[in-house]
Amino acid sequence: MPLVQMSELSQSEEDLQDPRDAQGLVDAQLLEAMEEGAASPRSSSSSVSSSYSACAESLLQDARHLMMTDLVGFLLLKYRRKQLTTRAEMLSIFLRAYQHHFPVVFSQASECMQLVFGVDVKEVDPRGHWYVLVPTLGLTCDGMLGDGQSMPKNGLLVMLLCMIHLEGERLPEEEVWGALSKMGLCAGREHYIYGEPRELITKVWVRVGYLEYQQVANSDPARYEFLWGPRAHAEISKLQVREYLLRVNRRGPSSFLVQVPSLSEEAASDEEEGA
To answer: Domain MAGE: where (predicted)?
Structure first.
C-alpha cells in the first residue's frame, strides 16, 4: 500500500477547506462503473475480461486514493484546529453509496498522517468512535512552525530520530542527506511540506532541543553528525522507538526509508532492561 504522493498535499491554507464543502471526492457514476467492472466483467472473451477487470480494479484503487487524500486534508484541518473528530464525521466526507470503502481509506490516511506528518490518529472513545490527533511518539512539539498554519513537520523529525537510534546513537550527516534525497529533500531547496530542510534540521530542531548537530571529533576536513538532543531523550524512550519501528516494518519496505533490522529480540531485551 503506497503512501500518498506528497505533492497532492501541498495546497495552501486557503485551499485546504473542509472536504464536505466540495461537490464530492469522485464522480459517482464513474466509481459505480469501476466497482461493477471489478466485480463482474461481462465480456465473453477471457482475455478481454481479464484486461477489463484489471483496468477496473486499477481505476478503483485510484478512486480510493483520491478519497484518502481528501480524508488526510480533513484530518490536517482538525489537527490545526486542535479538534477531535468522530467516525460519523469522517464518514460524512464519503459519497453515501461508497461508505464501505471507509475502513481501507481510513487505514491509509492514518498511515500517511503518521509517516508524512508525524501525527497519530488515536481512538479515545471506542463506543462513540471519537478520535484525537496527537504528535507521534508523544512529542510535545506539534510540528507546526511560525503561526501554526504550515504543514506539520514531525514526520521528518521522527524519521531522523529513528535513523539515529538504529545507527547507534550517532548518524553521519552524509547519511542523512543521502536518505533525504530519496524523498526529494535537498539542502537549499524549498520543500512544500518541510520548507528548507537544512534550516529545519540543523537549526530549528537543534534550537528546540530535539537534535544535536556537532563536528565529528578529529575530522579533517570537518565532518558533522547528528545525535538525539536533550528534549528527545526526555520525551521518548528506546522502547517507544522500537515499538514504532516494529509497526512501520509490518507495513512493508515502502513505508520507511530505513531498512529495519530484526527488532523483536531487541525490544524484548530493552523491556527487560527497563529502557
So the answer is: 70-263
Give the mean model confidence (pLDDT) for residues 55-70: 77
The answer to whether 226 and 164 have CB atoms below 8 angstroms apart is yes
164-183: per-residue pLDDT in tens?
Answer: 999 888 999 999 999 998 88
Statement: 6-136 belongs to CATH 1.10.10.1200: yes
Residue 146, all three cell numbers: 511560525
Given a cut of 50, whether residue 26 has pLDDT beyond it is: no
218: region left, alpha or beta (phi > 0 left; psi from -120 to 50 alpha): left
Other CB atoms within a 10 A radius of the CB of residue 144 amount to 17
The DSSP secondary structure of 228-272, one letter per residue, reads E-HHHHHH--HHHHHHHHHHHHHT-GGG-SS-----HHHHHHHHH
CA distance 27 to 83: 29
Domain boundaries, the chain: 6-136, 154-273
Question: If residue 75 lies in a helix (H) or strand (E), which one and from where to where?
Answer: helix 46-81
How far is Cα 94 from Cα 102, in angstroms, rounded to an integer?
8
Placement of cell 513505508 in the chain: 255
Extract the C-alpha cell encoding 3. Answer: 503512501
Which residues does residue 185 pair with via DSSP β-bridges, in sequence order? none
Contact 272, 239 (CB under 8 A): no
Fold that domain 154-273 belongs to in CATH: Arc Repressor Mutant, subunit A (1.10.10)
In the prediction, which pLDDT does 204 show?
Answer: 93
